[in-house]
Amino acid sequence: MEPKVAVVTGGASGMGQIYARRMAERGTQVAILDLNEEGLKSTADESENITAYKCDTTDLAMVEEVIDKIRDQLGAIDRFVQCAAIMPTAFLNDQPTALINKLMTINYGGTVNVVKTVLPAMLQRGSGELVVFGSIAGSVLTAQMGAYSASKAATNAFMEVLIEENRGSGVHIMLVCPPMVNTPLLKQVTESSNPKAIRDSIEKGRLADPEKMIDVLEQSLVNGKEIIYTSTEAKVLMWMRRLCPRLLWKMVLAYDKE
């Protein structure tokens, strides 16, 4: 069943934007949250079912204010999708401490803020869907992505525990762990350290298709899934990380040196 009201953070671009458009096309009233005012406006202009709200997810007071406004204007939130994130890359020795902390504040702290703001009302009703984008990078680690991986590892762990602690509540909580996806977020990578593995993936067209990632997400909601890896590559890498982590590291580091 399609939700009557959905909220998507990071809805001004990338997978958040794609999913917001899809739900709006099906008649859902979709609130999109972002700091990208131009992207917010252009996306909201596409459909009368999309409403834009400027919101910094790292600011808990602002998150609470915006969520209250959405409930007043659109109604109870049936589905919440957390996509907002940043992904600048660098060797940890070279990446400024302030930027490492910023990654954690946005990617993990922002997730905590929105989840803690939205989930209580869903639990009180005994219904709703809460979807958070973690990442395969939170488990499968690579050089030059240490800060991003740390922020997503924290997000993955937070969500897995949240799922178990709220089992049987009537709220469907789902963690999505995609591989590297072809979205505008990659611009932050190419404009920072631009790791070889990502350069090659872009040049050879090996990046995951964001439309297909949303297809998997939607089917997983229908099937009641809780933690999903949205591609065969992600599943293989996860098993390698669990069964032979040193071999995986050797492969990653050797590839970077080619």
Give an account of the 3D structure:
The protein is of the alpha/beta class and 258 residues long. The protein has one domain (5-257): NAD(P)-binding Rossmann-like Domain (Rossmann fold). 53% of the residues lie in helices and 13% in strands. It has helices spanning 14-25, 37-44, 60-74, 97-125, 146-165, 186-190, 196-203, 210-223, 232-243, 245-257, and strands spanning 5-9, 29-34, 50-54, 79-82, 129-133, 172-177, 227-229. Strands 3-2-1-4-5-6-7 form a 7-stranded parallel beta sheet, sandwiched between helices. Helix 1 links the parallel strand 1 and strand 2 (29-34). Helix 4 packs parallel to helix 5 (146-165) and helix 9 (232-243) packs across helix 10 (245-257). The radius of gyration is 18 Å and the shape is globular. The model has no long low-confidence stretch (mean pLDDT 94).
- What is the top-level CATH class? Alpha Beta
Sheet of most strands: 7 strands, parallel
Percent of residues in helices: 40-55%
Strands of the biggest beta sheet: in what spatial order?
3-2-1-4-5-6-7
> What is the count of structural domains?
1
Brief account:
This protein is α/β, with parallel strands linked by helices and 258 residues long.
Key terms for this structure?
single chain; about 260 residues; alpha/beta; Rossmann fold; 7-stranded parallel β-sheet; 10 helices; 7 strands; about 15% strand
